[in-house]
Amino acid sequence: MTEQLSARDCFDIGYSAFHKNNLEEAKRYFHEAIEKDPEAHEAMNQLGIVALHESNNDQAIEWWLKSLAIEESAETLSNLGFYYSQQEQLDKAKPYIKRACQSDPSRMDAMIQWAYIESTEGNFSKAEELLQPLLSHEVAMEQAHLMLAQVKSEQKLFTQAIEVLEELVEKDPESDEALLKLAKTHWTAGQHAASAQYYRMLLKRLPLHIDIIKEYGTLLRDHIDTKKSIELFQVNLTWAGNDWELHFHLALALEKDNQPELARQSYMNALELNPTENILRQKVAWFNAKLANK
Question: Which ranges in 172-273 belong to alpha helices (H)?
Fold first, then answer.
C-alpha cells in the first residue's frame, strides 16, 4: 500500500522501475512522491526524463522547470541544457549548462558541453580554458581530449590538434575514437599517408566497421591509389553485399579508374538496393547512353 510509503520510498521505487524500462510504473510512483511531498523536485526531474523518453518534449521541459523552481539542481539544469543542445538551440542551452557547471563543477559532461558551445560561438580561448583541467581527469579524459582537438581543428591548428590526439593515444592506447579522429584530422590537413596509416590501424581492430571501410576507401580513391580502393570495396562486398553505399563507392572508384562497364554494373547494383536514390538513376542512365554510343 502506497499510503505507508514515504515520498522518498515512492521515488526510489519509481527510479528502480524507470531503470527496468517500466515507464508507466515509474510515472505512477513519481507522481505519488509529489503528492506526498509537493517539493519533491527529484521526482519532477525524473518525470521530465520519462516524458522525454516518451517523446513528450514540451511536458519534459515543463517538469524540469517545475523542478528548478523548487531547487536549482545541477542534474536538472544539465537535462535542460542537453535537451536544448540536442535541438541545436545552443542559445537556450548555454545558460542551463553554465549554471549546472557552476552549481556542480564535478559534472564533467556539462563542462565539455559548455566548451563545445563556446567553441561554436568562436570563443576558442574560453573553450580551451574549460577543457584544460579535464585532460588529466580519469573519467573525462577521452572526451576532453577529443573536444580540445576539435577546437584546435576549427581554428585550423591541425598540428596542435594532432598533438592533443597523440597525447590521448599515449594515455589510452585503446581509444578507437582517438585513432579515428587522428585519421580524419590528418586527412583534413592534407596528410593523406598518415591518415591512411590510422585507418589501417582502426581496421585491424574493427575489420567489419562499414563506415570506416567507406571512409578509408574514399581516401584511397581520391588521394592515394584508386586500384587499392577498388580492391578494398570488392573484398568487403563479399559480406556486406546489401549495403548500397558500398556498391556506390565501388562504382565511383571504377569510374575513376576508367572501367565504365564495371562502374555501370556497380551503379545498377546500388540502384537495385536503393531504387529511390536520384544520383544512382542518373548515373545508370548516363552510363547506358555512353556505352550504347561506343
Answer: 176-188, 192-205, 210-219, 226-237, 244-256, 260-273
Side-chain half-sphere exposure of 34, counting CA atoms within 13 A: 16
Whole-prediction pTM: 0.86
Cell of 59: 511536458
Which amino acid is it at 122? G
CA angle 174/180/184 to nearest 5° reads 155
Question: Domain spanning 190-294 has what CATH number?
Answer: 1.25.40.10
CB 221 within 8 Å of CB 233:
no
* Those residues with Cβ within 8 angstroms of residue 214's Cβ, 6 or more apart along the chain or in another chain: 245, 246, 249
Task: Tell me the domain boundaries of the chain.
Answer: 190-294
**Position 144, amino acid:** A
Question: pLDDT by residue (tens digit) across 159-212?
Answer: 999 999 999 999 999 999 999 999 999 999 999 999 999 999 999 999 999 999
Q: CA 131, CA 146: separation in Å to the nearest integer? A: 10
- Which phi-psi region, left, alpha or beta, contains residue 122 (left: φ > 0; alpha: ψ -120 to 50)? left
Convert the pLDDT of each residue in 262-278 to its tens digit: 999 999 999 999 999 99
Specify whether the CB–CB gap between 165 and 139 falls below 8 A: no
Cα gap 179→202, rounded to integer Å = 7
- Provide CB contacts within 8 A for 262, sequence distance 6+: 254
- How far is Cα 20 from Cα 10, in angstroms, rounded to an integer? 15
Residue 1, pLDDT above cutoff 60 = no
Query: Which grid cell is 88?
Result: 541545436
